[in-house]
Design goal:
single chain; alpha/beta; six-stranded parallel beta sheet; 13 strands; about 15% strand; binds adenosine-5'-triphosphate; helicase; ATP binding; Helicase_C-like; hydrolase activity
């Protein structure tokens, strides 16, 4: 097996890695670092927690040490939490080099950074509003969680990416990494212009072996009681475990956090309706184990590297296998063990089948003492209902509406015009629907009429035959 020196890293950088417990390269590092150091574009697809970040940070730091100047590298990533995590890796590994703080909020009074780590939205805004900021000389463009950046999910990055790509030099090295690259391979190849080196970890399964993947089949109404029971059991049995619970919506995230707190579990939340400052603060408290339970939406599903997380609970079954892979990948990282438990209702069974098909692994049932769950069922459901009422009085939904308006303003759109446009679209859609219904009804009527005519004809024929027979 290769070591970092033989892959082309300088002694000081190898030493720096050792100080961080990075002694031997992982397969994605062993395979992707040499072509990157040779100057090739690279696409790396390897499982969650397999060291993809260092696979691009190390060659960039190595190259930067050989020829340091201005903004050298741009890293784009879907969330600001991830941006900070990546910036930290650059800062720590590049410390002996005096690598200048990788920054996200660009402050033009400071010396230009060597590495900029940003979310596409923030950076595109900065580019649009500044005429002095230039990235025309960068050598590296890195898209971490590259497939997510190209997806048109609830946050669509494509417009911002276009703005950013237009400011970058054509001659650059492009590196693309994710645990789930394959769906967007074609689009990604267009961004990496110079016939990229593609490496994918060879494995039958798409999740790590160290992960024990379980499910609990439950009626919707009993889900929360199972959740409380599971957390009670885990916290009774383990002192040092942290748990992430993924929910479908911000509101659910908020409700569950408040509910678990009512049961005295040290719980904190992370979702997109929170202010960024609060998001960072909550994540820091969870990382420091001040709070052992994090309830989060999919903003926390990708990339976050928190070694103490032993359990991931999916409060809802993810609609896409890809989301499942990233969510459960928050545990069992870097060779550690971990458990994931997905709460499945009878309506989600087809989703589990599709997840199992993609990850090539069967989820196993998680054994639970149902009697114990039923004992707490009423108390849990009453608590949830009380919290929902409390939340309604704090105008959570109204805040959501205001946040949406703010987002539209930030995107340079007029919220009132957008609302009007949406209403018009809705009107057209409903007219179309009505029209379609009318046509279907008229076809139905026609068919019915034809059928009636046929029946009458048949009856007449029968009568005629009967009359002939008697005559
Ligand atoms: N060669 C190595 N030896 C030991 N630990 C390593 C090595 N390389 C990276 N690590 C550690 O492994 C952990 C996971 O790495 P990283 O966050 O880069 O995973 P990833 O592949 O990007 O996962 P994800 O797809 O979830 O983003 C980190 O804590 C990192 O410090």
């Amino acid at each position: 097996m290769a070591d970092f020196s033989s892959l082309g890293l300088s002694d000081w950088l190898v030493k720096q890695c050792k100080q961080l417990g990075i002694n031997k390269p992982t397969p994605v590092q062993e395979n992707c670092m040499p072509p990157i150091l040779e100057g090739r574009d690279c696409m790396g697809c390897a499982k969650t927690g397999s060291g993809k970040t260092a696979a691009f940070v190390l060659p960039v730091v190595q190259k930067l040490s050989e020829d340091p100047y201005g903004i050298f590298c741009l890293v784009l990533t879907p969330t600001r939490e991830l941006a900070y995590q990546i910036a930290e890796q650059f800062r720590v590994l590049g410390k002996p080099l005096g690598l200048r703080d990788c920054i996200i909020k660009l402050n033009e009074t400071r010396l230009p950074p060597h590495v900029v780590v940003a979310t596409p939205g923030r950076l595109a805004d900065h580019i649009r509003s500044s005429d002095t900021f230039s990235m025309s000389k960068i050598q590296f463009l890195i898209l971490d969680e590259a497939d997510r950046l190209l997806e048109q999910g609830c946050t669509d990055f494509t417009k911002d990416l276009e703005t950013i790509l237009a400011t970058l030099p054509a001659k650059r090295q492009t590196l693309l990494f994710s645990a789930t690259l394959t769906d967007t391979l074609h689009e990604l190849k267009n961004i990496a212009m110079n016939k990229p080196f593609f490496w994918e970890s060879k494995s039958e399964t798409r999740t790590v072996e160290e992960l024990d993947q379980r499910y609990i089949l439950t009626p919707e109404k009993v889900k929360d009681a199972y959740l409380v029971h599971l957390i009670q059991t885990f916290t009774d049995e383990h002192d040092d475990w942290s748990i992430i619970i993924f929910t479908n919506t911000c509101k659910d995230c908020q409700v569950l956090t408040m509910m678990l707190r009512e049961f005295n579990f040290p719980t904190i939340s992370l979702h997109s309706m929170m202010k960024q400052k609060q998001r960072f603060a909550n994540l820091a408290k969870f990382k420091a184990s001040v709070f052992k339970i994090l309830v989060a939406t999919d903003v926390a599903a990708r990339g976050l590297d928190i070694p103490t997380v032993q359990v991931v609970i999916n409060h809802n079954t993810p609609g896409l296998p890809k989301i499942y892979i990233h969510r459960v990948g928050r545990t069992a990282r870097a060779g550690r063990n971990g458990v994931s438990i997905t709460l499945v209702t009878q309506y989600d069974i087809h989703l589990v089948h599709s997840i199992e098909g993609q990850i090539q692994t069967k989820l196993k049932e998680y054994p639970v003492e149902e009697k114990e769950v039923l004992k707490i069922l009423t108390q849990v459901n009453v608590t949830r209902r009380e919290i929902e009422i409390k939340l309604e009085s704090t105008d959570f939904d109204e805040k959501k509406e205001i946040n949406k308006r703010k987002q539209l303003i930030l995107e340079g759109k007029d919220p009132d015009l957008e609302a009007k446009r949406k209403a018009e679209l809705e009107k057209i859609r409903s007219q179309k629907k009505k029209f379609k219904l009318k046509i279907q009804e008229s076809i139905q009527r026609q068919k019915h009429g034809q059928l009636k005519k046929k029946l009458i004809k048949r009856k007449q024929l029968k009568k005629k035959k009967a009359a002939q027979a008697t005559a």
